[in-house]
């Protein structure tokens, strides 16, 4: 047998060393890449919540946000409403001179507005004659500006702003919403279906449409200045009776009128 020289075995040795070195390099390279791309485990991910905010069309910024917490019940910070309220508001009938002609039959809106205006201005109403003059002046203004004999709360708010510079708002009526206004010193004006408003002092079953001022409340009743009768000062209606009758003016059917009230800023 011919002995192979060590030079003859050299190429195989070099090849083996090269292959073994490459295998070690490749293994280390793959491990390095996996280490760089490794994602955090679930414990790490739960410690951070991210929100994407696009700052420009081609740039997205990742902003770290605190982890969300379960919402707690809201805290009602409003003070408890007083048990009884009765604002000191002067009263006068919509027919101050007891003349129930057509103008005064339709003057509940004007009388209600004037009653509240005197309260806001902190001025006594004065004599029946002076109040009747105010009613006639207000009716003349409405006729000049094309308002009809029956007007909505929105109309009355517009008139009050233009004529007296009062700032008002029409709001949805609930027992609590009225109480809140009264507790902050603001009387409210409501429109009502007069035929279902239980006031024994009304003639002929009451008007089809009526307006009055709510000035206070007790545990079971609203206290009103109802200008539809000379006995309307501090006239009380049970909550349900007044709430059932409250309807804003609707020329087709008063019972379809919205349950709303008008209140003015007293600042």
Main sheet record: 7 strands, antiparallel
User: Remind me, CATH topology of the domain at 85-264?
Assistant: Cathepsin B, Chain A
Task: Encode the helix/strand succession as letters.
Answer: HHEEEHHHHEHEEEEHE
For this structure, the quaternary state is single chain
Number of strands: 9
Shape field: globular
Second-tier CATH architecture of the domain at 85-264: Alpha-Beta Complex
Output the radius of gyration: 40 Å
What is the C-level CATH assignment of the domain at 85-264? Alpha Beta
Number of helices: 8
Termini, distance in Å? 123 Å
CATH superfamily of the domain at 85-264: Phytochelatin synthase, N-terminal domain
Beta percentage is 15-25%
Give the low-pLDDT segments: 1-11, 32-77
What's the average pLDDT? 80
Description:
The longest helix is centred in the N-terminal third of the chain and has 32 residues, at 6-37. By secondary structure, the chain is of the alpha+beta class. Helix content is 37%, strand content 20%. It has helices spanning 6-37, 42-46, 102-105, 108-121, 128-144, 153-164, 175-183, 239-245, and strands at 49-56, 59-65, 85-86, 168-172, 188-193, 209-217, 221-225, 233-238, 260-264. Strands 3, 4, 5, 6, 7, 8 and 9 form a seven-stranded antiparallel sheet that branches. Strands 1-2 form a two-stranded antiparallel ribbon. The protein has eight helices and nine strands. The protein has a domain at 85-264: Cathepsin B, Chain A.
């Amino acid at each position: 047998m011919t002995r192979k020289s060590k030079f003859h075995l050299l190429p195989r040795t070099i090849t083996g060393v090269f292959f073994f070195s490459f295998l070690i390099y490749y293994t280390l390279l793959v491990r390095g890449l996996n280490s760089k791309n490794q994602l955090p485990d679930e414990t790490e991910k739960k410690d951070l919540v991210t929100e994407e905010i696009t700052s420009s069309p081609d740039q997205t910024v990742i902003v770290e946000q605190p982890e969300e917490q379960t919402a707690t019940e809201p805290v009602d910070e409003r003070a408890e409403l007083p048990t009884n309220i009765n604002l000191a508001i002067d009263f006068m009938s919509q027919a101050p001179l007891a003349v129930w002609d057509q103008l005064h039959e339709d003057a509940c809106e004007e009388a209600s507005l004037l009653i509240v205006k005197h309260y806001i201005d902190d001025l006594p109403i004065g004599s029946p004659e002076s109040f009747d003059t105010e009613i006639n002046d207000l009716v003349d203004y409405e006729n000049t500006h094309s308002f009809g004999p029956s007007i909505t709360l929105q109309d009355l708010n517009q008139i009050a702003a233009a004529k007296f510079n009062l700032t008002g708002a029409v709001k949805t009526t609930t027992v609590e919403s009225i109480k809140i206004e009264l507790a902050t010193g603001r009387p409210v004006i409501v429109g009502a279906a007069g035929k279902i408003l239980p006031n024994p002092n009304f003639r002929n079953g009451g008007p089809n449409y009526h307006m009055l001022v709510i000035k206070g409340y007790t545990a079971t009743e609203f206290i009103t200045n109802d200008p539809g009768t000379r006995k309307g000062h501090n006239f009380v209606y049970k909550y349900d009776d007044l709430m059932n009758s409250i309807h804003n003016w609707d020329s087709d059917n008063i019972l379809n009128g919205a349950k709303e009230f008008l209140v003015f800023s007293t600042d």
